[in-house]
Specification:
Largest sheet: 9 strands, antiparallel
CATH topology of the domain at 14-22 and 333-570: Beta-galactosidase, Chain A, domain 5
Strand order of the largest sheet: 1-10-11-12-13-20-17-16-15
Shape: elongated
Number of helices: 15
CATH architecture of the domain at 14-22 and 333-570: Distorted Sandwich
CATH class of the domain at 14-22 and 333-570: Mainly Beta
Helix content: 25-40%
């Protein structure tokens, strides 16, 4: 390929080259694990679903929850007020119910897991009134009354771990001024759940949910010396899963900023609990926490939110700050993360985050992995310019696959096909086997050359993407080239943040982009036809926003078709 403008021959000061092929570990064996889950699920129903199993959970009960620090995370007051009114708004679905709350058939399993996890106790605690405290107690007692016996969702290991951490962390809130009868019922149920979790962990689960299991075990064991067995079990689970799931550069194996935040939050909470109860923090936990904190910073835009890769929404910057603070994570974000497969380009006020890795198949039952190889996001200061589509958090199946598609990312599609196949059950099928990356720098200018083979099986073509960012951050150029023989056309999409105002100039090759705080950018392309199209943005977990996208289309008429494009900054007075 001939170099695009900005890729002139030069003496390079720093170079980074690597090929990303995924973890290389059979961490999430989808087909086998689904088959195994069906078998083990039937066994669980026979063993734990038997009412007599309840007898085997009897044993010593702690008199109190000793030395447990209060839940460290802030709640959502608005949601707490809703819960006071018997309204439960979780994951984009709101249910109003006074009775028949716990085992409903009109919501999906994810919603039920959120309900049974009791993390929303912090929402009631945030209100801070006796009414909220009594409501929390009533819901705990109602759960105990309706869930004495095993259920595949309410007693699932990760849901149970989340609930135990929530109950322990809100023990003071629940028990302050409570009658002795409540304390007895509450602590007896807590002890029974601790025994079951210790018995079944890891509970046929895979992936990041195992850290919720470990957290629940460690909370259970920290309650009293009587449950030390659970704490040791939790630490052993951490010792096993941290090297399996956390890359040496600190990235989580699912390559999702949202998962990165959630796992680091669990690890920070575990670390704080061990320190508060005067226990040693294992080196493997401290090391993983430190590395993950640096990687979480890597994924942040100038507004403090997260980049929208692999099932991620922007998130709340204050919460990300809090997680980093509680993790005591030190260090600046790296430029390259060859294990996780991402690049970070910073020059002037411009930031680019670039996915140069192979998608990792997610655990069965999750839909975290997206078909967004070689997509990028771009921000200028605190304003986002080019984005990916985000993530769908509701319960409408019609949105889940489209937002994971290649077309929902700022990258290339051939004949409207995905670079990674999204199967009907949500798993990833065909996908790239390898992605290459070469990064060069000189005098603050940055060049990156990448490729992936995700379209080889369908079209016999390799996608090459080259990027250049000038030292002042005001000149960003790229080239997309498709080498191979098949296919009829390809589209390059640049999804725009909803706050960006775009207009196609009369020349047909220029798009003017205006930012809310003044200034803007001029986009141009050579080698394809430019269109400005309507789009939707799911980067805000609370609601869907209308947005626009630049689409550059070109026919695949030769074995090496290329399009060159540029973003050049316009001063505020000229925008």
């Amino acid at each position: 390929m001939s170099p695009p403008d900005g890729f002139e021959e030069t003496t390079i000061e720093r170079t980074a080259r690597y090929t990303h092929t995924g973890s290389g570990k059979p961490v999430f064996n989808g087909t086998f694990h689904r088959f195994l889950q069906r078998i083990l699920g039937s066994v669980d129903r026979l063993l734990y679903g038997n009412p007599l199993y309840f007898i085997f959970l009897t044993g010593r009960t702690p008199r109190r929850l000793n030395g447990i620090p209060p839940d460290p995370w802030p709640g959502d007051r608005e949601r707490g007020e809703a819960i006071l009114q018997n309204t439960f708004p979780f994951l984009g679905t709101t249910i109003r119910a006074k009775t028949n709350l716990w085992n409903r058939d009109d919501v999906d399993t994810r919603w039920l897991a959120e309900l049974h996890g009791f993390a929303w106790l912090r929402d009631l605690r945030t209100i801070g009134t006796d009414t909220a405290r009594r409501r929390a107690r009533d819901l705990v007692l109602d759960w105990i009354a309706h869930n004495r016996f095993w259920h595949p969702t309410s007693w699932r290991a990760d849901v149970l771990g989340t609930r135990m951490a929530a109950w322990a962390g809100h023990g003071d809130f629940l028990c302050a001024g409570a009658p002795d009868s409540f304390r007895a019922i509450f602590l007896t149920s807590f002890a029974r759940q601790a025994r079951h979790l210790h018995r079944v962990a890891p509970g046929h689960l895979q992936g990041p949910s195992l850290f919720a299991v470990a957290k629940g075990l460690i909370y259970a064991g920290a309650v009293s010396a009587k449950h030390e067995f659970a704490l040791q079990n939790g630490l052993q689970l951490l010792e096993k899963e941290l090297p399996r799931q956390i890359y040496p550069d600190g990235g989580h194996i699912l390559r999702s900023p949202e998962v990165q935040l959630a796992v680091l939050r669990d690890l920070a909470e575990i670390r704080a609990l061990l320190m508060a109860t005067h226990r040693e923090v294992p080196d493997i936990l401290q090391s993983a926490t430190d590395r993950m904190g640096v990687m979480l910073r890597f994924f942040r835009h100038g507004d403090g939110g997260l980049a929208l890769f692999n099932g991620t929404c922007e998130g709340e910057s204050w919460l990300i700050d809090m997680v980093l603070g509680r993790a005591d994570a030190q260090g600046s974000p790296p430029e390259s993360t060859p294990y996780a497969g991402f690049e970070r380009l910073v020059a002037g006020r411009t930031l680019l985050l670039f996915d140069v890795g192979v998608p990792e198949p997610a655990p069965p039952g999750t839909q975290q992995t997206h078909a967004g190889t070689l997509s990028f996001e771009m921000s200028c200061g605190k304003e986002r310019l080019v984005v990916n589509g985000g993530a769908y958090v509701g319960n409408k199946d019609a949105w889940r696959d489209p937002i994971r598609s290649t077309a929902a990312h700022s990258t290339v599609t051939i004949d409207d096909k995905n670079s990674s196949e999204i199967l009907s059950d949500g798993r990833i099928g065909r996908r790239p086997h390898r992605a290459t990356c070469c990064r060069d720098e000189k005098d603050g200018n940055i060049w990156i050359e990448t490729s992936h083979d995700g379209y080889q099986a369908l079209f016999g073509r390799t996608h090459h993407r080259r990027l250049y960012l000038s030292a002042n951050g005001e000149d960003f150029r790229g080239e997309d080239c498709l080498e191979g023989e098949k296919g009829s056309k390809f589209d390059i999409r640049f999804l725009l943040h909803p706050n960006v105002s775009a207009s196609l100039a009369r020349d047909g090759v220029t798009v003017l982009l205006r930012l809310p705080k003044g200034g803007g950018w001029k986009f141009q392309a050579v080698g394809g036809v430019i269109n400005l199209e309507k789009n939707v943005y799911l980067g805000d977990a609370r609601e869907m926003h209308h947005s626009e996208q630049i689409v550059v289309s070109a026919p695949l008429e030769s074995n090496a078709v290329r399009v060159k494009w540029t973003f050049k900054r316009i001063p505020a007075r000229a925008a």
